[in-house]
Specification:
With 78 residues, the protein is mainly alpha-helical. 54% of the residues lie in helices and 0% in strands. The termini are far apart. It contains 2 helices and no strands.
Length: 78
Amino acid sequence: MTSNPNHGNGSADGAPTPSGGLSGPPPDRPETEAERRRRRAVFLRELTEARELRERVQPRRTKERRMREAMRMRTFRI
């Protein structure tokens, strides 16, 4: 499993500030489309990585989940 070197310890997108909020882009500056796409790409990479890890660690549960999902898909087909 590789961690993202851009995000340090793997915590949320920003570190908690003393006031309790997350640090991130200042509220007065809107997020650009490129920044949003970059954050989304990082999130999807980490999500895929987590799913792959779960499949390796809990293969039986993963197989059961896949079977249930396939059954649901067959149920709703027309």
